[in-house]
Amino acid sequence: MSVAVLPLALAIDLLLGEPPTPLHPVVWMGRAIGWIDARRPSRPEAELVYGTAAVVTGAGLSYATARLALALSRRAGKLAYVLAAAWLFKSTFSLAQLARRAIQVERDLLRQDVVAARASLQHLVSRDTATLSDRQVAAATIESVAENSVDSFVGPLFWYLLLGVPGAVAYRFVNTADAMIGYHGHYEYLGKAAARLDDALNWLPARLTALLLAAAAALTGRPARAAWQTALRDHRRTESPNAGWPMAAAAGALDVPLEKVGHYRLGSGPEANLRPRSIRQAVELMTVTAALAASLTAGVQWGKHVRGRR
Length: 310
Hints:
Blueprint: H1 5-15, H2 25-38, H3 44-75, H4 78-90, H5 95-110, H6 114-121, H7 134-181, H8 192-201, H9 203-219, H10 224-234, H11 244-254, E1 258-260, E2 264-266, H12 276-309
Antiparallel strand pairs: 1-2
Helix pairs in contact: 1-4, 2-3, 2-7, 3-4, 3-7, 4-7, 5-6, 5-7, 5-12, 6-7, 7-8, 7-9, 7-11, 7-12, 9-10, 9-11, 9-12, 10-11
């Protein structure tokens, strides 16, 4: 019955969307991380130790809680187990919501309402969007779609394949901690372990996503070779050891430049190619990438199932 978990989780994401806030495990994770943040020590060295212990403990508890929930649901029968596993697994990724938010930015830009587009973009990025031009808004949206192809889909699937639903849940805790406290400045010490652990967990998924983006480019009539070559050439330009891979691959596939002023510039396409419709093209590319990732995951899982029955 475990082979039904992935397709059911995907169906929940596409048809029902996000769980209600009171029932969303990632919301609970966010509240726990907020609680941790509110009780941080004052000295940098103590913050580092505290933050490291907190993220490791949080990931461990997330894994253990998911295992316990699945064990309890299994006692209620196979159907209850599959439903619980699919619901938990779906909570670790958010493909449909990512696409909807990106398309909303495109719609705002098509109406030539850059103020609304900046506000919509704020749901996707942590940077200040108040002064971004329409092309910069489009570029930032494409970057978010590409980078979140890892965080919001390929990463959870990768750890699900290795460690089951509890592994995907533990991954989501680390990724959420990185998103909330994995920054320089105020969170330099508290979030350092979260940022480094997230880098480690996403090391393979990020590179796999770049490969899948290149394959998706080929399937959608875009330059797969340019996608992969751009990823190889430009991935080191970002501070993150992982984010540059999918973002540069998307830049090459769409023939657009992706720039965060003062930080990096990925791709060699002309700025004139950065149009609202580029966002929809990025979403289409992400969708095909996700379909490839899901197909690979299902194929490997089915192969394990068949071997296990022999």
